[in-house]
Amino acid sequence: MVKPLPPGCRLTAIFDSCHSGTALDLPYVYSTEGKIKEPNLLAEAGQGLMGAGMSYLRGDFGGMLSGIMNVGKTAMGSNSQAEQITRQTKTSPADVVMWSGCKDSQTSADTQEAGRATGAMSYAFIAALTKYPQQSYIQLLNTIRDELRGRYSQKPQLSASHPIDVNLLFIA
After folding, report:
1. Where does 34-76 show beta strands of DSSP type E?
2. Which residues pair with 96 in a beta bridge?
3. How far apart are CA 12 and CA 99, in angstroms?
4. Any idea which of 22-26, 37-41, 53-57, 127-131 has the lowest mean pLDDT?
5. Any idea what the Cα angle at residue 127 is, between residues 122 and 131, rounded to 5°?
6. Rounded to 5 degrees, what are φ and ψ at 134?
7. Where do transmembrane segments lie in this chain (predicted)?
8. DSSP letters along 148-159, please?
9. pTM for the full model?
């Protein structure tokens, strides 16, 4: 979706929906400390093993072997040539930033605020910018999460088409 955007184009997308963590499939996802998150290889390997086990229980030996092979590929490390190619193909010459309501594995809550139905992350995003209009990207991510903490378990995500300086001021 973002690959064809031309250089100089800027897109800021907000996805307040379930399983939206990588909705635009952007290659750079940021932690609350401003660091680029690396894939969680242990979690990916565990999912692969569980899939292989479920395939075995269903009698699907092809699926079981495929799951085991994927665990092996995951175990080879995150700096593989395949990962580098994947990261390169997900980039865009445009400046694309995405705020998502939650991780891919989570649901994004709905809420009632001032008598109106809204997404919890949408409300938190607006509340964060209303309280503190001059925030960096990383400050805004943390303020949004602070707004949700204690009421919702979802963890909003910040991702980009290329590495960004998350200490720069977010301009709406």
Report:
1. none
2. 11
3. 8
4. 37-41
5. 155
6. -105, 85
7. none
8. HTTT-----EEE
9. 0.72
